Amino acid sequence: MASFVDRVVLHVSGGNGGHGCVSVHREKFKPLGGPDGGNGGNGGNVVLRVDHQTTTLLDYHHSPHRHASNGGPGMGDWRGGKNGEDLVLPVPEGTVVKSKDGTVLADLVGEGAEFVAAAGGIGGLGNAALSSQKRRAPGFALLGIEGESQDIVLELKSIADIALVGFPSAGKSSLIAAMSAARPKIADYPFTTLVPNLGVVQAGDIRFTIADVPGLIEGASEGKGLGHHFLRHVERCAALVHVLDCGTLESDRDPLSDLAIIEAELEKYAVDMSYAGQDGEVVPLNHRPRLVALNKVDLPDGKDMAEFVRPELESRGYRVFEVSATSHEGLRQLGFAMAEIVKAAREAVAAAPPKVKPAVLRPRAVNESGFKIRREEKNLEPLFRVLGEKPERWVKQTDFTNEEAIGYLADRLAKLGVETELFKLGAKPGDTVVIGGDDGVVFDWEPTMMAGAELLGSPRGTDIRFADIGDRPTRSQKREEQQERRDAKAAARAELEAERKAGIWTESVSGRRAAGSAKESGLDGDDDF
């Protein structure tokens, strides 16, 4: 059974927001005291937090699905729902959070460092919060939104100052046990170390940590052995120490050939350049300071081998130390040499000015609508897809079993300018409109759905605009009917005028008006002067 896990895929989801409440206040002598439905509670977040007592990702290997608690629904008498509690997941220091495509989301270094892996959904508003002077008693409430859900990759990169690298059974674990209080597994067969080991070393007034990597072999960069899998644990180290076995019994191996193979594997290893430390830069492993420790000089053959290869190594520019994990020979000198490198690296970090990325302000454009409409085609029919944070959130909050809630959504979309933009793009009544992505809500666009539901005297929970929606004429039909009425009136006037000219009428309308004016003035056409 595995006891050390340094990479897991975690499925996290925030809590869902609670639904708003539809309620009307009632008490004695006040049967309709106004809306009093409370808001739903917000869902809890999934938070990753560094905990020094956590050293492995084993728990998440066995239980990779984590979900925060949901928010409570709203209640009557203006009582809001309870907010969901955050789910805090402890992770070791040095955990790097990545997305499925490898993008670095967070690098958790330092006790208490946090990262919100999945945000909880917001709660829906109750009808008390939706009431206004024009909409005094809403018969609907908004629904809570589901929490964010995503898959993330957790990779553990140990926090160490010095890394020990070398062939299997070179004595790396023995050196850590001799120089620190760590007690790793030690045996006389290769690949004894199956997990990276950490040890704390005190050299003078400098305290630092060293880590060993399970044995590297030739072809490790291609996945052979264990070393390549664990090299990520030394990516944060300031320097490398090559531990060379001077007492090996294998005839085809010697310290110089082992060093050449390890250097070649380090050269091939691609450091995760997407990760950047506090200085914003990543130095490849083979470009970092390196020391050479000729181990097992307590053996007669080991001492002779160390004296034989030491001049060659020093001519290449390496600082060489003859050490023995058994007799502790040379360990003090090696420890102080490591401390010098660590001290210089820490001073360089402290002296270098912090690289702070300039704040980028992106104010919202004056003419930015907050949404966009993309014209598509499906089954040789036009389709208009509405994308935007507000429209997509409003659709998720709408209860489509309530006509008044649908009317409220139509009012919000019209106020945002969605209908006007659809007209500009050439949308026609009956065209398909989708709000959202592939899982969006599909509508048959009806442009006669005018805004202003708060002015309509329909009962609570209903909307008069949805009554007999199939029999309501469209705008073009209304214009045709109006034109027909105008033509009928013009034809009637023409018929009356034709009858007058044909003599069917004894006098015209203008003659009657003239006669009436003469009587009012006291004149008669038969009087003699």
Account of the 3D structure:
The chain is α/β, with parallel strands linked by helices. Helices cover 27% and strands 19% of the residues. It is built from 12 helices and 18 strands. The chain has helices at 58-62, 127-130, 172-179, 227-230, 255-268, 300-315, 331-351, 389-397, 403-416, 418-424, 475-501, 509-521, and strands at residues 7-13, 46-50, 65-67, 87-91, 95-99, 104-108, 114-118, 149-156, 162-165, 197-203, 206-212, 239-245, 290-295, 319-322, 372-378, 381-387, 432-435, 441-444. The radius of gyration is 41 Å and the shape is elongated. The N and C termini lie far apart (136 Å).
Q: What is the makeup of the main sheet?
A: 6 strands, mixed
Overall number of strands: 18
Strand content: 15-25%
Spatial strand order of the main sheet: 10-11-9-12-13-14
What average pLDDT do the residues reach?
A: 80
Sheet/helix structural class: alpha/beta
Give the overall shape, derived from the CA principal axes: elongated
Separation, N- and C-terminal Cα atoms: 136 Å
Write down the secondary-structure element order: EEHEEEEEHEEHEEHEHEHEHEEHHHEEHH
Q: Count of helices?
A: 12
- Rg over CA atoms, rounded to whole Å, is 41 Å
Low-confidence stretches: 186-194, 523-529
Q: Helix coverage percent of residues?
A: 25-40%
Descriptors:
27% helix, 529 residues, five-stranded mixed sheet, alpha/beta
Short description, anyone?
This protein is an alpha/beta fold.
What is the topological layout?
Layout: E1 7-13, E2 46-50, H1 58-62, E3 65-67, E4 87-91, E5 95-99, E6 104-108, E7 114-118, H2 127-130, E8 149-156, E9 162-165, H3 172-179, E10 197-203, E11 206-212, H4 227-230, E12 239-245, H5 255-268, E13 290-295, H6 300-315, E14 319-322, H7 331-351, E15 372-378, E16 381-387, H8 389-397, H9 403-416, H10 418-424, E17 432-435, E18 441-444, H11 475-501, H12 509-521
Parallel strand pairs: 1-3, 2-4, 9-11, 9-12, 12-13, 13-14, 16-17
Antiparallel strand pairs: 1-8, 2-7, 5-6, 5-8, 10-11, 15-16, 17-18
